[in-house]
Amino acid sequence: MVDAEVTLLDRGRVFADRGYVVDGYSMAGQSNPSPDHEMAEFVVWNAVVDHPEGTVLWDTGSHPDAGDGYWPDPLYDAFAHVDADEHRLEDDLDAAGYALDDVDAVVMSHLHLDHAGGLTAFEGTDVPVYVHEDELKFAYYSAKTTEGSIAYLASDFDRDLNWEVVHGDSHYLAEDFELLHLPGHTPGVLGARIDLPGETVLVAGDECYVDANYREEVPLGPGLLWSERAWFDSLQRLKDVERRTGADVLYGHDLERFESFGGGWNR
Ligand SMILES: [Zn+2]
Fold it and tell me: What is the pTM of this model?
């Protein structure tokens, strides 16, 4: 274990139909031909891992102009990050006691627009930005063609960034700070295992948006799933780590879960 601290940054709220996130939620049936749909509330979070080898920022949130035309209209209508403009990266870092200059490295769990919107802060700097090979390839393929996924914006990541490409299933970023390749939601999702003195923190990220994806093994809805087969394999990998370590599992967008950790794991 390593004497590190993990501080969670609240980057705001997204409202979306729960059916996107939990497959089969509120489906019509003979007994209930017109089920109600509602917008559920989700969190966007980042984290600062204050590690003896350096300060690492986990993800960068949404672009502050997400609701002001920066995100394509149909996408914002479905996934509304209603307060992105009140959550600038430097302000949310500042509230947690950090400045942009303190960040020695950035890890991108993946490059979707609610994670990559703050990368511009690192443009033209030598701060390494870690991303999985499969993610960087798929992000460009998606953003630059009509194939792939619509949730990648070239304007977020097609910039002068100091990319550090992660290959394979596992990569030790620092002592007791392991990056895990968790394909499923996208081809190149990265999670993490951080072994702190008190407990292990297991970052599932968008492999699991909410608890139902993890505990009940209900996949994300089809629109959020690149590969269901890979998703199930990645889920078992996370559960193996949890079984061995008793880790606290941090999901991608579960507000209740996020709040239960009370700001992170600090001494
Ligand atoms: Zn996300």
Answer: 0.96
